[in-house]
Design a protein that fits this description.
Layout lengths: L3 E7 L3 H7 L3 H7 L3 E7 L13 E4 L6 H6 L3 E5 L7 H4 L5 H9 L14 H4 L11 E5 L19 H11 L4 E5 L11 E3 L5 H10 L2 E5 L2 H8 L5 E4 L4 H4 L5 E4 L31 H4 L8
Length: about 290
């Protein structure tokens, strides 16, 4: 009998690919007679997933058309959930928008990561004398030269409050990129790591203070409640109820979005888009629940 396929094209950042893992099981249940073929930008997060039959990197698709498309019984999903009305208007979670495109019922699904035995041995790399507080302050492109991107990065004033509050009880690991700002009295981790090494650090942490980036999605897959800061993005669209979601205050003036079309803020740190004049306009830092 000729094999049937579903080809699911998932492109974008690491966090978005982690979110996509939430629906692999449902796709297989909804299309039980088809093999699920993932074409994605971060293949590592789909490996070991029992619901995925094969994973391809977007940059390595040799002979793909002949194998899965030409004269084959195939369904191709290459729609972009970011372009759905529910996403643009911030009325639906990213996973729900993907469900609409995939013809799957939304049930508040959560990401699922599968870590094998040798990958689990990486946990020992992060053993420290005190419990670990993982402080993730900056996301996006690892090679970016930006010190601070206001849209998602944690302001340094808040990072300092966290150090003052927790440095005596926890060993603080500051996860950032090479260009990120420097904090004193922490273990700085800014070297390149595989995704699995990154997830192992998350797994051993006792407390997590994160931003809207890949680790807040990965934490859900491990059932690890975290404190997550939100500035230019929304937990309604990208977040989870398990986390303590701290949202920036609504700006009082928003007349600077001269280049905005379907979305308000650009993730690439367009500085003139920032509607906040000071950290106090962004957060009530004296009363933060951290």
């Amino acid at each position: 009998m000729e094999e049937k396929y579903i080809v699911w094209h998932v492109q974008g950042g690491l966090g978005k690919n982690i979110v996509a893992t939430a629906l692999c099981k449902d796709i297989k249940l909804h299309y039980p007679d088809r093999k699920l073929i993932l074409v994605c930008s971060w293949p590592e997060v789909f490996l070991n997933n029992p619901n995925v039959d094969k994973v391809y990197n977007l940059d390595k698709l040799s002979h793909f058309y002949k194998t899965y498309i030409e004269n084959k019984d195939v369904i191709v999903f290459r729609q972009e959930p970011y372009h759905q009305t529910g996403h643009i208007t911030k009325q639906k979670h990213l996973i729900e928008n993907w469900c609409d495109l995939l013809n799957i019922k939304y049930t508040s699904q959560s990401p699922s990561l599968f870590i094998n035995y040798p990958q689990n041995t990486l946990l020992s790399k992060w053993v420290r004398k005190k419990p670990i507080l993982l402080l993730h302050t900056t996301g996006g492109d690892y090679n970016s030269l930006n010190v601070y991107s206001w849209v998602r990065d944690l302001p340094i004033e808040i990072a300092q409050l966290i150090l003052n509050k927790y440095s005596s009880k926890y060993h603080i690991i500051h996860l950032t990129k090479p260009s990120g700002y420097t904090l004193e009295g922490v273990e700085r981790v800014d070297s390149y790591m595989t995704n699995i090494e990154l997830f192992s650090l998350l797994a051993v942490s006792s407390k997590r203070i994160l931003i809207d980036s890949c680790l807040q999605h990965a934490a859900i897959s491990m059932n690890l409640p975290s404190t997550v800061f939100w500035i230019g993005t929304s937990p309604k669209v990208f977040g989870y109820n398990l986390h303590n979601n701290l949202e920036a205050k609504t700006p009082t003036i928003q007349n600077q979005l001269i280049d905005s079309y379907l979305f308000d803020y650009n993730f690439e740190d367009i500085k003139y888009e920032c509607p906040y004049m000071s950290i106090n306009e962004m957060f009530d830092i004296e009363n933060l629940d951290i």
